[in-house]
């Protein structure tokens, strides 16, 4: 098995049955999980499923179908490879139109530096890559930069209801590869006092977990007066 990162990441689409030692069973169809390499044995996949769902009193697992898919990780819980020394890497997320919009009254200059843990909402490839409340349900956004990866430069990327949820749960900043800065969601975030980063690039290479978002004001040549230089730093 080889370890894969960025564009070389793999997931597995599978059907399985989990039998519990105290009775009962759980069946899945078309379930998808991140895997730490480019292949996985059935026994290891069963263990990964149990770990991901936090299941107790499992008597056994059976994998009835399995298909490997090369696509970026979505942040499946408890599926990372164990052991080994951490490797620090930096992903430049700055595009020609990247800009940071702060609500009225927010600090400028050095006080506007960003260094926040990331909650990555991976929607690239979805029929409607727009984050709604349900898409945000698995995340704890308090104190985080919530990064919405849509895989497209235009169109809506967050519903107003989702923006309200992020405000309720204390998101520190919202970022996206989308460029819509004037839609209802962006306005709702501004009213809630949440800064917004738009026009990011390279989100496919951003690890799904364990990343911090760094951003500094950079008006010259990066989106005009609200421009920013943005990096993802991960171990």
UniProtKB/TrEMBL annotation:
Source organism (scientific name): Streptomyces bikiniensis
InterPro entries named among the record's database cross-references: KFase_sf
Domain of life, source organism: Bacteria
Region feature Disordered, mapped onto this chain: 71-106
Record-given protein name: Cyclase
């Amino acid at each position: 098995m080889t370890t894969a990162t960025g564009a070389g990441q793999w997931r597995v689409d599978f059907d399985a049955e989990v039998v519990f030692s105290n009775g009962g069973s759980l069946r899945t169809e078309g379930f998808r999980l991140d895997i730490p390499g480019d292949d996985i044995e059935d026994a290891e996949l069963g263990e990964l499923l149990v770990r991901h769902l936090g299941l107790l009193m499992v008597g056994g697992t059976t994998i009835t179908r399995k298909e490997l898919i090369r696509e970026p990780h979505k942040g499946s819980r408890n599926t990372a490879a164990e052991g080994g020394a951490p490797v620090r890497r930096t992903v430049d997320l700055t595009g020609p139109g990247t800009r940071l919009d702060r609500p009225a009254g927010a600090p400028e200059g050095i006080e506007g530096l960003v260094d926040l843990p990331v909650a990555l909402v991976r929607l690239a490839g979805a029929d409607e890559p727009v984050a709604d409340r349900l898409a945000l349900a698995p995340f704890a956004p308090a104190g985080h930069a919530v990064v919405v990866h849509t895989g497209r430069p235009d169109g809506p990327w967050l519903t107003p209801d989702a923006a309200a949820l992020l405000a309720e749960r204390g998101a520190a900043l919202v970022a996206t590869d989308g460029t819509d800065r004037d839609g209802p969601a962006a306005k709702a975030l501004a009213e809630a006092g949440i800064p917004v980063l738009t026009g990011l690039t390279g989100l496919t290479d951003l690890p799904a977990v364990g990343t911090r978002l760094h951003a500094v004001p950079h008006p010259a040549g990066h989106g005009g007066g609200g421009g920013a230089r943005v990096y993802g730093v991960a171990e």
